[in-house]
Amino acid sequence: MNDELPARWRRAQALMAERDLAALLLTTEADLHYLAGFHTRFWQSPTRPWFLVLPATGAPVAVIPAIGAALMAQGPVRDIRTWDAPDYRDDGVSLLADALAEIAPGGRVGLPDGQGTHLRMPLAGWAALRDALPGHRFTGDGGLMARLRMVKSPAEIAAIAAACATGTRAFARLGEVLRPGLPLADAFRRFQVLCLEEGADWVAYLAGGAGRDGYADVISPAGPGPLAPGDVVMLDTGLVQAGYFCDFDRNVSLGPPAPAIAAAHARLIDATHAGFAAARPGATATDVHVAMDAVLTGGRGGGNVGRLGHGLGLELTEPPSLHPHDITELRPGMVLTLEPSLETVPGRMLVHEENIVIGEAGATWLTGPAPAEMAVL
Amino acid sequence: MNDELPARWRRAQALMAERDLAALLLTTEADLHYLAGFHTRFWQSPTRPWFLVLPATGAPVAVIPAIGAALMAQGPVRDIRTWDAPDYRDDGVSLLADALAEIAPGGRVGLPDGQGTHLRMPLAGWAALRDALPGHRFTGDGGLMARLRMVKSPAEIAAIAAACATGTRAFARLGEVLRPGLPLADAFRRFQVLCLEEGADWVAYLAGGAGRDGYADVISPAGPGPLAPGDVVMLDTGLVQAGYFCDFDRNVSLGPPAPAIAAAHARLIDATHAGFAAARPGATATDVHVAMDAVLTGGRGGGNVGRLGHGLGLELTEPPSLHPHDITELRPGMVLTLEPSLETVPGRMLVHEENIVIGEAGATWLTGPAPAEMAVL
User: Fold this and answer.
1) Are A122 and B123 inside 8 Å of each other by CB?
2) What is the ipTM of this complex?
3) Fewer CB within 10 Å of terminal CB in chain A, N or C?
4) Which residue of A86, A127, A304 is in closest CB contact with B321?
C-alpha cells in the first residue's frame, strides 16, 4: 500500500493549506502507519515517543528512535532523523524542534486534537517542545487526519475485507470452541486460536459476554465461570491483518433461546438492515442512527453504549459515530460498523455488529449479515 | 488483587503529600488498572477518554463513559461518575472539572509527565479542562506513579511469574511450529496459538526475526518470506495474563549455527548472567547495564536498542531502563528484563531476553535462564 502514500500526503497538504498549517505533527500508531507506512507491534512499548512531520509540500520527515530506523526505511519516507532513545536528557525533543524550525519556520503546526485522539508523548516533552519553539503556533488539525482516514482507498478496503473474511471463517467454527461447562475465559482463548488459524496476524481485541438474558456489558474480560445451557454467548472480535481491523460480533445460544431473547436478536438484525439501507452516500451518520434507533426503540434513543456503530480501519474504532450528533456525510469508501444494542431485562443486554463499506450506489456487506434467527449450538 | 488497592492509594497519597498535590489525575490503561482494578481490552478503542482522580486522602473518584460503569463497579472504587460518551458537546470535561473542583479546590493537580507516559485524552479537551479550572495548577507527578508501580507486590509478582511460565511452556513447544520453508508470518501465528493454548489471556506483543547472521531489527512485523535452513529465528513475546505481561525471547537455529553466531549467543547468555549477578538491592540500573556491557563490548557501549533491559508489569516496558543514565536504585519487588544485544555482522544482530525479580538477597529468575548453547531444531 506504500505506493499510495504520496497521494495521501498531497490530500493532507490540500487540507493543511485550507487551515494555513505549515506542518502537521503526528505521534500515534495509526497516523504513522497511514502517512509513513510504519507498521509494527512495538507501539505496545510505551517507553519511546515517535514523531512524523508532514510539511506543507513534499514528503514527511520522520524523527524517531534509532531502534526503528531500519523499519521506517522500508517505507517511502527518506528523511529519517534518529536519536538513541531512551535519552534521559533530551528524548527526541530537540531533534523534533530542529526539524520543525527547519520545515515550518515560525509557522502554524497542526496536531490532531479532537475526539478519539491523543498526543503520544510525555507532557513534559510537549512543554519543552513549545518552549524550544516560541515563535511557532501549535494548533488543532481541525479534524483533518480524521477526515482523510475516514475515506478508505480500494487497497485499504481490501485489507479490511480480508480481516472480515478471516473473522467470518473463525465464527463459522464457533461450534468447535463453545459448550456448556467451559469457562468463558477458555472460550475466549480458543476463539482467538481460531482467528489465528484462519489468518489473523494477531487478535488485538476480543470482548464478549454470556448469560441466559444476555450480558451486563460488552467490555469486561472473560471470567472463570462456566458457560451454562441456555446461555446466550456473544464474542466481539477486532482481529488485525496487515494493520487493518475488522470489528464484528456473533451471538449464539447454547440450546434454544428464550422467546424474548430470540425476539430481541431478530430486532437487532432488523435494525442492522435498517442501518444498511440508510447508509448511502449523501446521508449522514445521524441518518443511519435514526434509522436503526427507529427499529430498536421507536425513536426514543438511550442505552449506555452511546452510539449504534462507528468507523473502523487502522483502529478498532474510528470516526464517524452513528450518533444523534454526528453529522458526518457518508461518502464512498467509508467503512462502518452497524452495532445495535437492546436492553433485554434491567442490567442485561444483547449487541449485534456487522461491518459495511459505502459505495457509489449504497452500502455493501463486509460481514454477514447474520440471519434474524440466532444460531443455536 | 483488588484487596491491595487501598494500600496503593495510601502509598500514592504519601508521595503526593511530599509534592503538595491535592489530587492526581490519571488517564491510561495501566494507571487505571493499578489504582482502580479496571481491567478491560476496551482500551483498544480510542474513541473515549477515561479519568481517575485520586484525592489527597480517601478513595479515588472515577469519571468515565457510562459503557464502563458496570465493570468499574466490580472494583473497589465506589464514587463512579459517568457520561454518555461520545458526547459531541462536552466529552467528560465538565464532569471531570466538577470533580476536580470538588476534590481539590484551587489545588495542585499532578499528572504523569515523564518518560514513557502520555495524557490519554484529546488535546482540545485538555485545554478546555484547564480553561474550566483557572485556579488550579496542573503539574507533573514527579515520577510518583512510575516509582509506585516499579515495586511489585507479591500478588503482582505471582501474576508476572504466571505469564512467564506460560511463555516458557510455549517456547518449549517451538519445535512444533518452526521449520524451513514456513513463512515467518505463519510461524508468528502458530507461536501465538501455542501461547493461548498454554494459558495466555491474549498475546499483546510478538516480534521476532530470522536470518543466517541474525536479524536486521527486533520490531518489524513478520514478512511472508520462508524460513531457510541455517536461519537463526528469534521470537520475543509479551503475552498477558490477568493484565500482567511477560517479555522474553528465545533464539533457535534451524540446523547447526555458524560458529560466530553460536559464540555471539553464548556471549549474550554470559551478559545475561552478569546482569543477573549485578541486579541486587542497592545496586542501580546503571550498575546492571555496566555489568552486562562489560561482557558485550568490553565497556564501549553502543547499539541502537538504547538499553539492555527494563522494567515490566502492567505494561510491556516500564521504568527503570538498564541504561547508563538511569540511576534508579534496585529494590526488592522490582521485576526486570535482561535484554543484551550484539551486532553480528554490519546491519544484523542477535538479542536475548530473560525476566527476573529482585529479592532481599538478590535476583531470582522468572524465565530460563537459557543455556549458552543455542537450541537447534
Assistant:
1) no
2) 0.97
3) C
4) A86
